[in-house]
Design a protein that fits this description.
By secondary structure, the protein is mostly beta strands. It contains 2 helices and 6 strands. The strands form 2 sheets. It has a 4-stranded mixed β-sheet with strand order 2-3-5-6, with no helix packed on it. A two-stranded antiparallel sheet has the order 1-4.
């Protein structure tokens, strides 16, 4: 399932090994301008709000209007992830909150 999601999100390169006994993985799909790529500023959890928040650095003043896919894969300790229900994306233009959809990953072997 992890490898299937890696392919579905069209990620390139070798697939990082994840210890699924202690970690869960979030796949986040976005779009961005080719001339102004998102740069991760911070990643924080807020257990009181059952939320994980990703913040990006401000974008350049002038960006092209094209959209390219940009994906992030985030490993989170299960002690935290089991308490999260939403994901907040924060940029200078807006804040978006989306629910976390759970897709179980089975271990083979």
């Amino acid at each position: 399932m992890y490898e299937d999601s890696w392919k579905e999100f069209q990620l390139e390169g070798s697939i990082p090994e994840i210890d699924f006994e202690t970690n869960d993985v979030l796949f986040v799909g976005m779009t961005e301008s080719n001339s102004c790529p998102y740069i991760l500023d911070s990643l924080k959890t807020n257990i009181e709000k059952s939320q994980i928040s990703i913040t990006f650095e401000p974008l350049d003043d002038v960006c092209t209007a094209d959209l390219s896919p940009r994906n992030f894969v985030i490993a989170i300790d299960k002690k935290l992830s089991s308490k999260l229900t939403s994901f907040r994306i924060v940029s200078e233009q807006k804040e978006i909150e989306v629910p976390i959809l759970v897709k179980s990953i089975e271990s083979y072997g």
